[in-house]
């Protein structure tokens, strides 16, 4: 139903020109102070889109975000101590 999305961090040198990055995917966040943008795009066309982004004159570097690969389900190995502090 939903397309697989991949996140990318785009480092740029010109913040005014970086506003046009929304043509290449969904622009999630744009930091004018630190000169980077977080954007998401479909995984099927991501490689071609990254090549097109790297050709832009104001883009310094494009990095892939590893947020999808971070484990978000945690285990609790420490026993619960709240029962010892009850009234």
Short description:
The chain is α+β, with helices and mostly antiparallel strands and 87 residues long.
Task: Describe the protein in words.
Keywords: Cytoplasm. InterPro entries: DUF2129. It holds the Pfam family DUF2129. By secondary structure, the chain is an alpha+beta fold. It has one domain (5-68): Alpha-Beta Plaits. Helices cover 15% and strands 31% of the residues. It contains two helices and four strands; from the N terminus they run E-H-E-E-H-E. It has helices at 15-18, 46-54, and strands spanning 5-12, 26-31, 36-42, 59-64. It has a four-stranded antiparallel β-sheet, covered by helices on one side. Strand 2 (26-31) and strand 3 (36-42) form a beta hairpin. The longest helix is centred in the middle third of the chain and has 9 residues, at 46-54. It is elongated. The model has no long low-confidence stretch (mean pLDDT 89).
What is this structure's SSE topology?
Elements (H helix, E strand, L loop, with lengths): L4 E8 L2 H4 L7 E6 L4 E7 L3 H9 L4 E6 L23
Antiparallel strand pairs: 1-3, 1-4, 2-3
Low-confidence stretches: none
Principal-axis shape: elongated
Order of helices and strands: EHEEHE
Count of helical stretches: 2
Kindly report the name of the CATH homologous superfamily: Peptidase S8 propeptide/proteinase inhibitor I9
The overall average pLDDT, rounded, is: 89
CATH topology: Alpha-Beta Plaits
CATH architecture title: 2-Layer Sandwich
Q: Could you give the count of β-strands?
A: 4
Distance from first to last alpha carbon = 51 Å
Name the helicity range. 10-25%
Rounded to the nearest angstrom, the radius of gyration is: 19 Å
**Level-1 CATH class name:** Alpha Beta
Strand order in space, largest sheet: 2-3-1-4
Strand % is: 25-35%
Judged by helices, strands and strand pairing, the structural class is: alpha+beta
Keywords: Cytoplasm
Pfam family, one: DUF2129
